[in-house]
């Protein structure tokens, strides 16, 4: 791929090489005519090989999923500096070209070459990457799932903490599922704990009290106690449709995948990504809505408990699964509504997301974010993430969808930079301590 992606999305899964890497980047010449029509052929690069890399990136964005036989071979021809800047302008806001130019000169790359490459890209037109995406609706509507007919047992895992009011609705949604062979494991950390709450549902519920307020311990324990061959991770502040479970199973079967990552539509926060409307390779795992074959846990272990009371434990697990070669598909048909309630759960433990601690002077980002990025991508990528995200994180979570507020807040945050820097240093130090301690990943037999 283009090296400029490491500046723009420094902690993206696909910046790292995984097993079966070739299947992620489609060879345009081996695609069906239908798939080829989704892709815009570029005419601005130095060689045909570089054009093929751009088209492979387009295919990834548009949901064109192939096997290794149709994957793009590693090209001995690498993009030139001019190619890199043209790629940026084709796929991203022009501001990113300025950002990359500044960083590459700062890193002591040849400034004359960089400026020439930047100037040569000025006439490059940005394309709409989400135009003509790959729809699989007709194929899936006709698909007869043998896995669904076999009715494998599913274990739905729900950790909960002081959210009985919302958990009630989540369990009601599970009662209405059109798929019947599943159990529900609820790890309850609420104070006070109410065992009688679970007696009013027509579900196979196994619930128990966990004294320690620990999300990843809860999920790991539930997975260890589960009886299903498929594990479906769910959040207590979520709502789903009646075919939610069956949609996950159909996705695993249709794509011969190990992981079906359902999309999460939040009532607050950032805009819903355009990629949530079609099937594609997934570059994340959201443990509020994901079905995982149990063999994945057997091969790579459970969740890393370094992330307790922090953020991105699911992101780390997803990255581990990607590196191990497991197929993870983003599934738009198995969506959930994420209520993002203000109390209970991780909210009670001190953050809205990985970059927004509830207290202004708390470490920013949450130290586990830097632990993850530094462990897998290195210190340079972690610093780039900080440069991109720390100032916008001053804007409250509820305004993430308001672009004007985000821009204004980012500029206002410049005046608070000395205080923000102290928070970042504190986070970096805590992440260093976590790295020194090492991962805490239990094995699963």
Give the structure's gist in a few sentences:
With 445 residues, the chain is an alpha/beta fold. The chain has helices spanning 5-8, 33-36, 48-61, 81-91, 95-106, 111-120, 137-142, 146-150, 164-175, 215-225, 244-255, 294-300, 313-323, 345-348, 367-377, 379-389, 403-413, 417-437, and strands spanning 154-160, 182-188, 205-209, 230-234, 238-240, 259-266, 280-281, 289-293, 328-338, 351-353, 356-357.
Plain-language structure description:
With 445 residues, this protein is of the alpha/beta class. Helices cover 40% and strands 13% of the residues. The chain is built from 18 helices and eleven strands. Strands 1, 2, 3, 4, 5, 6, 7, 8 and 9 form a nine-stranded mixed beta sheet that branches. Strands 10-11 form a two-stranded antiparallel sheet. Helix 9 links the parallel strand 1 and strand 2. The longest helix has 21 residues. The mean pLDDT is 93.
Structural features:
single chain; 445 residues; alpha/beta; 9-stranded mixed β-sheet; two-stranded antiparallel sheet; 40% helix; globular
Please provide the count of β strands: 11
Mean pLDDT: 93
Secondary-structure content class:
alpha/beta
Portion in helices: 25-40%
Using only C-alpha atoms, the radius of gyration works out to 23 Å
Strand content: 5-15%
**Which ranges are low-confidence, i.e. pLDDT below 50, for 5 or more consecutive residues?**
none
Q: Main β-sheet: number of strands, strand sense, barrel status?
A: 9 strands, mixed
Shape: globular
* Terminal CA distance: 37 Å
